[in-house]
Amino acid sequence: MKLIIPASRICFITSYSDNIEDKIIMLIEAGIKWIQYRQKNKTKREMFYEALKLRKIAKRFGACLIINDYADIALAVDAHGVHLGQEDLPIAEAKKILGSRIIGISTHNLEEALEAEKGGADYIGFGSIFPTTTKDNTLVQGLDALKKIKKSVKIPVIAIGGIKADNVVHVLKTGCDGIAVSSGLIEGDIIDNAKRFINAVAFDFNP
Asked: What is the CATH class of 10-201?
């Protein structure tokens, strides 16, 4: 059975900051076992070599590594899977490359969520839940929309966008299956941030 949602239910999405490998090791050691490698400012060749380093780290610590956007890089570095945007490779074509590996899809409305489920996605990311600084021109969907998506699809729903330690409880109360976080984990005290998120997802809210 393939791993779709790691036990921590928290996905760390890499930012474009320096020393990302050191930060990932800190987060994994703190209990964050799901890493999504996202990089927009490098060539695919540079991304391949960086992703390869992250795959070695993931293997060493037993963490899950997902590659953003590029199914070919995911396959080349032996990652657990790929996370695709609405303008990336169609799910059916990604499956031809990746076989049974994990495929996640970014969605921003109910139509996209249902289409991703119908197409065979293993999980969907839905957002942005709150305003975020990590992506430009992001439309805020809010908690009510997240609740609607969760009730409308059977595959796991991962909330993303502007999630911080001080608002994560409100997100989890919607019943979503997990959260994806970038700056909320690495801005400030990384270890303290990780502990606060892990404590939050460990609580059963019974929405």
From this structure: alpha beta
